[in-house]
Amino acid sequence: MSRSRQRHVMTQPLYTIGAILAASGGSSALDPATSINSITIDSREIGPDALFVAIKGDRFDGHDFVETALKNGAVAALVSRGEGDKRVVVSDALEGLRAIGRAARERSRAIVVGVTGSVGKTTTKEAIRVVFEAAGETHASIKSFNNHWGVPLMLARFPENAQFGVFEMGMSAPDEIRPLSQLVRPHIAVITTIAPAHMESFGSLEGIASAKAEIFAGLEPGGTVVLNADHPQLDVLLDEAKAAGVDRIVTYGEAQSADWHIVDTKIAGDKSFATIEHNGEHHELVLNVPGRHMVANATAALAVSYIAGIDPEVALRALASFGAQAGRGQRLRLGSGDQVLSLTDESYNANTASMNAALEVFAAQTAPGGRKVVILGDMLELGEQSASFHASLAPAVTASGAERIYLVGLAMAALADALGAGRVAAHTQTAAEMAEIVLNDLAYGDAVMVKGSNGVGLAGIVEKIRNRFGNN
């Protein structure tokens, strides 16, 4: 493939109503020439020429918000019931969305990448996006829209003229990634790593690996699989790839055998440095974020971009500006002058691998002029081994140098016991209970890291810390 790609400006609409009807098999009184330039499932977020899709979720039914969406400016609503001249009626709205996603993928000539893994999939997806955007028109999943409705929505938004597409795929049970991958049909499938997550649904790390390997089911003929080589389940993934008929496998990591071999990693302040060896060549990687795990995520992006035909120098320049996202290691300096509090926001997710990685990064950090503080929340969905997994964090917590340790959630009792009497400043069952305790103890000069599973609600504590210390 050519190692330079030209940008193109979108002039045609994302869809017309006629194209929506052809894809979904629906019916409508709307003019088939009507333009659709955005697709949403949220009646509060209506973009230009929007199609609102009334899917039924666990808590809400989109059909209850159709009128609101139309009043807010949507030009049409994809529905499975109801009447009105601005409706596209299908048998099932979510299936209709999937059908639109399939049509978007069918018409695309872009290089498409699918990303999954227990840890680092969103950050790796973002690193790939950053590199692709330096080379051409790119469409990528936003936030963590990686489930049974998020992937179809992201695919349905895929512009016809995009040159690159990056889609994240997540799971909480077996047989969830396979249909997503078969929808996305990636040319390149990435598995970041295997770690304890949703253990209650899988029972073992090998079970998780096999479920992640479902991404191979949608791989385009002649496609490439990119695997992290730094975990014990690599052999499981290699066996699954062979069984799926995958011919081309590329590995990355610190393992000596990795095709993209990470050597000489150094963490200095808010930056990471590493040398990446590939095919006898050495590439100097610089990131605007600390952490060995961030180096691994960026190396995956480097490998993917090379397969996609992008010159490594273009990728390295793009990655030099790459930083962590909110909830995933973003570091903030709150306050000004001598009155500064350092806040590391890791509030979006947590399992043993990401906890240990975050604590390793925090260990290398110094407080601006006060204490080091960690606020840790439960790692959810770890099944029968939850207590032992939480207790296993004790050495990393101790090594982090944290002088004040705050724990949130029932499962964190096991970590409190492992740390021993007197080591935990406070332990509450909810984030709401912890918020005021922490706010009354923190002071400018402190360095604080907040990490836990999203369901624990630690993002609320992060927001309160930002509000309290962000202006002084």
Q: What's the CATH architecture name of the largest domain?
A: 3-Layer(aba) Sandwich
| CATH class category name of the largest domain | Alpha Beta
Mean pLDDT: 94
Q: What is the rounded distance between the termini?
A: 54 Å
Strand order of the largest sheet: 8-9-7-10-11-12-13-14-15
- Indicate the CATH topology of the largest domain: UDP-N-acetylmuramoyl-L-alanine:D-glutamate ligase
Find the structural class using helix and strand composition: alpha/beta
Number of domains: 3
Q: Overall 3D geometry?
A: globular
**pLDDT < 50 stretches:** 1-10
- Give the full name of the CATH homologous superfamily of the largest domain: Mur-like, catalytic domain
Computed CA radius of gyration, to the nearest angstrom = 23 Å
The tally of beta strands, per DSSP, is: 21
Number of helices: 17
Largest pleated sheet: 9 strands, mixed
**Helical amount:** 25-40%
**In what range is the share of β-strand residues?**
15-25%
